[in-house]
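Methods: holo model generation. Sequences were used as deposited, without trimming of termini or removal of tags, and paired with ligand SMILES retrieved from the corresponding compound records. Each pair was processed once, and we did not select among multiple samples. The sequence and manganese (II) ion SMILES for this entry were:
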Amino acid sequence: MASTTEYPLDDLAALIRQSDGFLCVGHERPDGDAVGSVIALALALRAMAKRVVAALPDPVPDKYQFLPGAEQVTCELHGGFDIAFILDCEGRERLGDLAEVVKGADRQIVIDHHATTAAQDGLDWVDTNAAAVGVLILRLLDALQVELTAEIATNLYAAIATDTGFFRFENTNAEALVACGQCVEAGADPYEIAQRTNNQLPLAQKRLVGRALVNLELGCDGRAAISHLAPEDFAAAGASSQHADGVIDSLKEVAGVEVSVLLKADSDGLWRISLRSATIDVAAIASRFGGGGHSAAAGCELTGSLPQVTQRLLAAIAEALQKQGTQL
Ligand SMILES: [Mn+2]
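and the model returned the structure below.
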């Protein structure tokens, strides 16, 4: 894996200058970094008078439709590319239906910041210190001496701001902040971007957050926050299961909480459980119940009454907290 200093950025810039016929793709169910980085790189290549197609396996989500160039992103591709840039993508399987066309390109170059992404091509660029792929695209623009237009800057600001949780997550660093400062100077509007990307929840989802907060309880001596959304909560909020996305993030903001758990009633009597923690491995807990995920975010499914399921989960969490070697 090439680090910042080792990566031959000038070689990549030279290759781009002498090539044509580019494809820029990001991961399925794209987030702000995938959308913003794909569009920004495509706009930059177009500014160099290159032929370029921007594509994502799924449509640009509504909240990112305001990004300049979003209307040019396609989900349907036909082959014939010289160079495919694969952005923000941990693993080719996240390219969904676009994987075949990407594979058919003469050369595939990865630009990413995920630790699990392997560099294969000599020009693959995986920098885990980069807060977002947007930061790397800005570095590339600099090497290419492409002007940072307001359109490109808006996409890069959105990429970096959303991937750092608007500068709250642990990946937030000086380079990300400096990069965003540059983008604002070039014409990106921080307030507009924050409004468009954050304040677009359907009413049903916000009401569901309210139900989850009313049902919130603490366990494990205040270190675990656990809540549930029963069928009556979904009914009262006028919500369906798709509105439960992101509800768990509102549970972890309680002082002293290290683990948050949300139980969502499924239509067939199952509880679908989401776990989040920055201090213990919740994938290990989820896997005890037949689930899985990442150490910071995982999920599983359980059957049983609410008190039973709650008790099983809290017992497993208490054990993990104890194992972690801190006082319970
Ligand atoms: Mn990213």
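The chain has two domains: 9-198, 203-323.
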